[in-house]
Structure formats: C-alpha cells, structure tokens
Design brief:
Blueprint lengths: L5 E3 L2 E3 L3 E3 L7 H9 L4 E3 L16 E4 L2 E4 L7 H15 L4 E6 L3 H13 L4 E5 L6 H4 L7 H15 L5 E4 L7 H11 L3 E4 L3 E4 L2 E2 L4 E2 L6 E4 L4 H14 L4 E4 L5 H10 L3 E3 L2 H6 L2 H16 L15
Parallel strand pairs: 3-4, 3-16, 4-7, 7-8, 8-9, 9-10, 10-15, 15-16
Antiparallel strand pairs: 1-2, 5-6, 6-14, 11-14, 12-13
Bound molecules: ligand RRO.
Length: 306
C-alpha cells in the first residue's frame, strides 16, 4: 500500500499537502485544517504592529483563480504569538509560522518572538506583493537584501531553528535569490508567492474590483509560472522546497513534485472547492501511486530534471 507520509527537514508530515500562509485568517479556521486531513498549516504572516489590512473587498475571484490584496491583516506579533502559541500546543500537525517585515531589524525581532512559541518551521515571507506603496519593496526581490536578512535572522535565532524563505515569482531570476538565501543559512524554500500585482475591472461599475485596486494573482492561471519557478530553484539549491501556486488536484501535486517540490501548498483551490479538496487530492495521489507502483512520493521529487 503506498504511503503519503513524508519527511521534510526531519519533521514528519502525514501527507505533503500544506495550507499556505494567508488563505485561512483566523486561528479557529486552522483547527479545521487538522480535521480535514492536511499535512501541515502555515499561519497568516505576522508583522510587528497589528494591521487592519487594505480596504475591502480584499479577495475576488476571476475565471482562472483569485486576486487578493489582504494587505497583511493580522493582530501583530504580541497578540499573534499568544494566539498561535496556544494553537501550536493543541494541534497535532506541524505548524509553519510566517512573519513579514521590510526591515531587517523587524525580521529579527519577529523571528525571535516566534521562536519562543516553537513552531516546527519559521517562514520568512520575503515576498508579499501587497504593501509595496506603503512599506516599500519586499526584501526578497533583491539578491543582496535576501542574503542580508536571512543571515541576520539566522544569527539571531541560532542553528536549531528551522528557517524557510518564501520567495516571489516577480523577479528576473528566482534561482539566484534562492541561492542567496541558501548561502545565508535557510533550511528550506517556499515558492511561489502571488504573481503580479494584477487588476480586474468591473465593466458595469467601471471600477477596479479590489478595494486596493491591485492585488496578487493566484489559482490555476499561475500554475505554469509556479512550476517553472520551483524548477529553477531546484536547479540552483540543495534545499528542500515547499512548492505552491495554482495546484488544485492530484495531477498538479505530482507535477509540482516532479519540478522539485517535497511538500505542496494548496490555497486558492480551497476558495473554489472548500476543505473537501484535500481528501480528494489525497485519494488522487494514492490512485496515481498505486497505478504507477510508487511506494513513496519522495521518488517523484525532481524527476523531471532527469
Ligand atoms: O496579506 C497579503 O496581502 C498577502 C501576503 Br502577506 C502575501 O505574502 N501574499 C499575498 O498575496 N498577499
């Protein structure tokens, strides 16, 4: 009987399906992730100060996926660390705690605070596309800034903390950015964040649909970009990859693994199909494995590279 169980950075995951950061907003929604059979969950990225987020609507659907401009809505690190700390103690599945800042000093502070609540992995979100006007470019859009922030955080939290860098597809060479993060000491890469920003106009109201006018694009329309980015990262670094971007069925998971991902994030598909999507995908994966006589998904990671 094939098994979906997988190991990532020495952590056991019952299956490789992960909720990416920001899809679920509230802590109690994350409790449902365990009930609905996910392998692991990622928290909404926390910032130093609480943030209300961008004007509504913050999430809209279009024919090939969704656009979001949530704008880092979160309770801030003080309250956030307390809430997520309680969640981490209760849940049985691995938790990836995500943090975001545009200043190195703030990233260090966030990582030090999150370390105290002991998530399995800390995700450094170096790539939120939705606060550029207000906060400036995310650090992960530059090779040097990526290196500097990871280096500083690694120095602050020590070797024992597992760090993952979440990268943006909106750069000319994502492989080079991943390489800088690897050299500076991350343990894993997650990719991709949303594409864009993009815009959708309602032709009846003659106005952009998002409250913030523009927002990051996700869903099936961006999957080929995500697969190419994971491919580029796999080629350049030796680190394990949490791949995501438009994955919505078992075939897409297999494709993402063949490009180089060991874990796979599924977020926008939750908007379209609800929590049932995870059991459905697990069934499809097991069917594929049985049909192709594959005992462990590890055998598929990076095979498309030959
Ligand atoms: O909150 C957001 O608007 C957001 C974040 Br932090 C991110 O990393 N990616 C995204 O598409 N939206």
């Amino acid at each position: 009987m094939p098994k979906l169980k997988t190991n990532f950075l020495g952590i056991d995951f019952e299956n490789p399906l992960i909720i990416p950061s920001g899809i679920l907003q509230e802590v109690n929604q994350h409790e449902l992730a365990e009930k609905y059979g996910l392998g692991g969950v990622t928290t909404k990225s926390m910032t130093v100060e609480p943030r209300e987020g961008n004007p509504i609507p913050r999430v809209i659907k279009y024919e090939c996926g969704i656009l979001n401009s949530v704008g880092l809505r979160n309770p801030g690190i003080k309250k956030g660390a307390r809430l997520w700390g309680e969640f981490i103690k209760k849940t049985k599945i691995p938790v990836i705690c995500s943090v975001f800042a545009v200043k190195i000093k703030e990233f260090v502070l966030l990582a030090e605070e999150v370390k105290k609540i002991k998530p399995e992995i800390i995700e450094l979100n170096l790539s939120c596309p939705n606060a550029v006007d207000e906060l400036g470019e995310p650090l992960g859009t530059g090779v040097e800034s990526t290196y500097k922030v990871v280096k500083a955080v690694r120095k602050a939290v020590g070797k024992e903390v597992k760090l993952m860098a979440k990268l943006s597809p909106n750069v000319s060479d994502i492989g080079e950015i991943a390489r800088a993060a690897e050299k500076a000491g991350v343990d894993a890469i997650s990719a991709i964040n949303t594409v864009g920003p993009g815009m959708v106009i309602n032709i009846d109201t003659r106005k952009p649909m998002l409250g913030n006018i523009v927002g990051g694009v996700s869903g099936p329309g961006i999957r080929p970009i995500a697969v190419r980015c994971v491919w580029d990262i796999y080629k350049r670094v030796k680190l394990p990859i949490l791949g995501m971007g438009g994955v919505s069925n078992g075939k897409d998971v297999i494709e993402m693994m063949m490009a180089g991902a060991s874990l796979v994030g599924i977020g926008s598909a939750w908007y379209a199909q609800g929590f049932g999507v995870y059991e459905k995908i697990k069934k499809e994966l097991l069917e594929y494995m049985q049909k192709n006589k594959i005992k462990s998904l590890k055998k598929l990671v990076g095979v498309a590279h030959g």
